[in-house]
Fold this protein.
Amino acid sequence: MYKTAKKIVRKESEQMYALMEKLYPICRSITGNGVRKSLQILKEIVPLEVHEVPTGTVVFDWTVPKEWNINDAWLKGPKGNRIVDFRNSNLHVLNYSTPIDQEITFGELKEHIFTLPEQPQLIPYRTSYYDENWGFCMRHSKFKKLEAGTYHAYIDSSLEEGSLTYGELYIEGEEKEEVLISCHICHPSLCNDNLSGISAAIHLAQALLAKKNRYSYRFLFIPGTIGSITWLARNEQKLENIRHGLVLSCVGDAGNITYKKSRRGDAKIDHIVQKVLEDKNETYELRDFSPYGYDERQYCSPGINLPVGCFMRTPFGEFPEYHTSADNLDLADMDALEDTLSTLKQVVHVIENNQTYRNLNPKGEPNLGKRGLYKRVGGASDTEVDQMAILWTLNLCDGKHSLLDIAVRAEMPFDKIKRAAAVLYETGLLKEMN
Amino acid sequence: MYKTAKKIVRKESEQMYALMEKLYPICRSITGNGVRKSLQILKEIVPLEVHEVPTGTVVFDWTVPKEWNINDAWLKGPKGNRIVDFRNSNLHVLNYSTPIDQEITFGELKEHIFTLPEQPQLIPYRTSYYDENWGFCMRHSKFKKLEAGTYHAYIDSSLEEGSLTYGELYIEGEEKEEVLISCHICHPSLCNDNLSGISAAIHLAQALLAKKNRYSYRFLFIPGTIGSITWLARNEQKLENIRHGLVLSCVGDAGNITYKKSRRGDAKIDHIVQKVLEDKNETYELRDFSPYGYDERQYCSPGINLPVGCFMRTPFGEFPEYHTSADNLDLADMDALEDTLSTLKQVVHVIENNQTYRNLNPKGEPNLGKRGLYKRVGGASDTEVDQMAILWTLNLCDGKHSLLDIAVRAEMPFDKIKRAAAVLYETGLLKEMN
Amino acid sequence: MYKTAKKIVRKESEQMYALMEKLYPICRSITGNGVRKSLQILKEIVPLEVHEVPTGTVVFDWTVPKEWNINDAWLKGPKGNRIVDFRNSNLHVLNYSTPIDQEITFGELKEHIFTLPEQPQLIPYRTSYYDENWGFCMRHSKFKKLEAGTYHAYIDSSLEEGSLTYGELYIEGEEKEEVLISCHICHPSLCNDNLSGISAAIHLAQALLAKKNRYSYRFLFIPGTIGSITWLARNEQKLENIRHGLVLSCVGDAGNITYKKSRRGDAKIDHIVQKVLEDKNETYELRDFSPYGYDERQYCSPGINLPVGCFMRTPFGEFPEYHTSADNLDLADMDALEDTLSTLKQVVHVIENNQTYRNLNPKGEPNLGKRGLYKRVGGASDTEVDQMAILWTLNLCDGKHSLLDIAVRAEMPFDKIKRAAAVLYETGLLKEMN
């Protein structure tokens, strides 16, 4: 097993932030060296495998596109001054821009400039993956001051045969049934969307690597849409093993947690996340599935229909910094990062521990007194279990209710029921169902 | 096909009103020449068939009654003046009155007078189909002024062997599965109840005759209760073809639309009407089935149990003019008539177009860009389709969700989903299910 | 049949109270002569059978305990004065106290004194059935005044081989399917908990003995927990006959009726009690099952899972007098006792009369007029039935809906539907389903 435990010295949120900080400057896209460099950084933390899928590979209805790389870019004004410079922000270049090195009039130039008139101080994030084009993104405040004249547009990029790169980490558990955790890695210098998701996934993976697990876990670090479609197309035979799944996106801002249910709407993962959020006793939001968003769109397409939900804090498009230069490291909230990771760990904890038991003394209540489980319970700290949790667990352990089901019906935290079940199991009153 | 198109020059609501105006003076009942004359007028517009079922015919638990006809009626007071006159209002005669020509005391007369003490200016509408009786209905204000003395009651009616008459229009569609539209035609000079229903049915039929339809449509113009029972008893073998049905009654007043669900409560027609009403974005009311009302009582009797709801504006008994001389042509609201017809046409539109498709690229999203369905959509007017509607349609076209189901889940108008499906179908992404 | 009818001269609530009054002074426990004496009193009213189950008998996971009896008990202070005296209140002795006759210091004594600091004027009710111990319960106000010194604790009790005693009354009906009514009889001088339940059960039994019943009825008068477990263990073969069941507890106080549903949550008894409470048009409370409370815990254990709910007024623990000397005869409310009994009789009435019928004229409505059921209904008092109740009953008597189902859907009182069904049955329009 990968050694990670001894590295954990700083608070986890600080480590999460540090990783985001390291990834932040890199210019990522759906293909290219930005992704490779990012995955290399992740690989220093967890033993992920890097896959390269050649340009032109047919994946379901799609084809892996040409690989895009960029070295430099700038726009010079009539007086020769640099108006935008890729080195200041990789958002300045329309992502997937074709190369150009040309003098053009202001009139021609305007067709290739993207701004946010309503947020004039921010640089927008724009892409043109499947329509070959070039362009610059800039502050509207600056754009308004541009004058007529001859400009020089320079983009030193390449769009060539190559490959699509993604990372995959498989953590084998006792069972081959697996949990899928997926995050998109195609955004350049944008922090909440989705360095936060990447960092949360990596640190959750670290925690799983440090212990024995019942389920196997598969983490995907993929470019949005084309990445999940590529993975699905190459791994159809593995899908039947996926029992639960989460897409992680926008999990670093100070907003409350939002969970978007799977297409099925009543998948186990939907109930698990809802219960974990309820048990936390903090405000959260549940949303029904809709076919817009991140890679849950692909995992929940009708022919795939996996039990995969989307775990977020403030959803994409609902925070003003979304897809702008303001989605930077300042947006990351340390408490939120901590809360995201601990909530995800609790989701995993419920997944791992959601056993179904059968009460071996189902006729009448068992005599708790003679087993030392009556009244004395609640006293000693190591056997501290709630009397009502014991009664609920005995009453509903009929082989049909999982611990989660019991916790939901009893309106008690999952862990309270789990502790009760553990004590009853030790006492020989419960039997695990297969 | 029946030629109707060239006649459509006036606004449809005006035509609907004109038909009501033409039918208004006729004294109808559950049998007799009033019904025949009315059906003859309808037959000038649509090619309906007129059925005659002889008195004495056993129909389920009932027997077709004697035929009733009336020529004239009046009541003369002690001074020889006409107190009520059938020629002024056919409501003045108790519907199905036996003939009489007799002088009687005021004391005897009072047993045969019906008034509305709480609406003293209105003539009530009363019937005595199955208890042989005679009587007059009059304004309470006038009744109060009557003095003792000898009166002369004169009713020139006949109650004899004859037949029950009803109209039936069958519009054959591509499929033999059919939609039933039923309205009662047994009320004399009452406008909202139910010349409005008759007129709406006729104009809906006209619209269906003018085009090719997927479903077959059967319109029934029948006397209430005994008419639907007669039709059901004579057509039991056709019932299995009825997929959807509506009873139309009281659809001409200015009130909001009220829809009373079928006995099943979750019949397709119930969902269709509800969705059409929701999409209209106007106030409406949904009611659960109850075994009181119009002929839905018969269509939804336990041994018949057809998916038939009742489409109304203000329900019977809930407008003050109900079953009185105030339910006259003044009660008709032109906007309401227009709205009723356009809503019914939209119901038919959903019935006709509620296809179920299968996404032929169900694994991951299909590449919309390469098919020109991404971003460019929303531009050109003839392919103007909503991007979210496309995504919902692709996501839920798994062969199990109809377009209606998709529209309901997506919380989008049916037509938005229909347009998306049409575009996807043309692009070859959807296949129609059988 | 047991003759009870002629005894009914006083109001039933007065009789219920008189029985509580007679039982009140007796010191009951889960075994012993107090129970025997109480059952003897009940046997004078209804022909119940008294069962004795020897100490040591294994019943499921439990063993019948030693029998406890007590003659006298007191605590004398340093000056020889009696501080507490069993003869003043049997609550003064910890129920199931082992015998003692010993001088002890105040320090030692304190370990054996139970008080209610927050209700200083009340004597608490405490038990120690399965942990051998001795003790006194007293007012906290008095306890606070005790001084250091030598005390004399005297409890003349015995804890010996003997038996557990319970009462059982089986009232045979036409069918062997049975209704279980259970109440606990183990509490000493406590009135609402549960002399009220005992008295209600006895008077309900009296009413059932006075008439012929469709169902058989089984009344259990048992010590809590160990009593129901004992009965269940000895009667497993009878459980399959139990169709409905109620535990009666705390039914004499002035609070509203509270019904706690069976574990199944949708058992017929749950629907029946809910409907009876609704029909009463008084405030009531419905609660979901929880595995805490009275003997419903045993009847609803997962391996038994009977359709048994718990019928209460103010639930245990929710009235301040609960398990204290204030739960005395003053707490009994005559109107509440009357209401409890009449409600239980109505529950039995619905159980007995909840037939399922089939409409023999299911196609269209039957002709009510020719059967004298139209209009004339509502007139004469002996056939006074509601027209809408007739229509609902005809419409839903499809062999699938019981009269209860119809009443619920029609939102009408059960008895209104029952009367309609009776009239329709007499007319030959309905057939009883087997």
About this structure: Chain A touches chain B through 24 residues (CB under 8 Å).
